[in-house]
Fold this protein.
Amino acid sequence: MVKEAGRSPRASVWLEGQARRGGRSGGQPSGLDRERITSVSVRLLDAEGLAKFSMRRLAAELNVTAMSLYWYVDTKDDLLELALDAAFGELPLPDPENTAEDWRDQLRGLADAYRALLVRHPWLSPLAGKYLNIGPNALAYSRAVQRVVRRTGLPAHRMMGAISAVFQFVYGYGTLEVQFLGRIADSGLSPDDYFQQSMTEAQRHPQAADVLQESKEIMDARGGDTVAEMMDRDFDFALDLLIAGIEAMVDRG
């Protein structure tokens, strides 16, 4: 296929003209705007998941025709990108002027909030790596992260590595957590019952039983009366290790 002259691949809904962001000029459906469309998109994604999300389903929820939505967005990708940034707007940001607060506490707060966001919106994880994430809320979060990491004392050429270590860990942990919680929800069991049943069944498999037996001491030492407590303790300690690594690298100069 020959590429049409003057056309460039889609980059981001945030790179379009300012006029387009408010809807095409003239004749827009009354009662609609991007903020309302985005808000309903987030609600539908939370309730029904990414696989079921469509322009037709969104239009039905808004009680308009699907064509009405195209006054405000060009594609479903545009809507998903808008919804993604709206979710980032839920993240609390530390006060950049509050230098009295320790950077370690601020970094933990940013990481904890991001993990919670991934769990709260299961559709967010697969979208976060798909788009440029240059909406206003995503950029505000990135700026906050950079300002906190700058306070660690790391040299500039090490900062992005530190950010990657912390927040790719959080992304991975939150992604696996939300997938695990999704399997639990499908089973109809509580997290603790699901965990116990899974462990019991795994022990019937010879190879799995051997591995589980070797790790029993580690798992017992980890503690935690519930699955939620175990996951929180693992997350918190792993984050502590990453922060200690940043401190060690600063000390090494």
In short: Residues 156-187 form the longest helix (32 residues). Confidence is low (pLDDT under 50) at residues 1-7. The chain has twelve helices and no strands. The two ends are 54 Å apart (CA to CA).
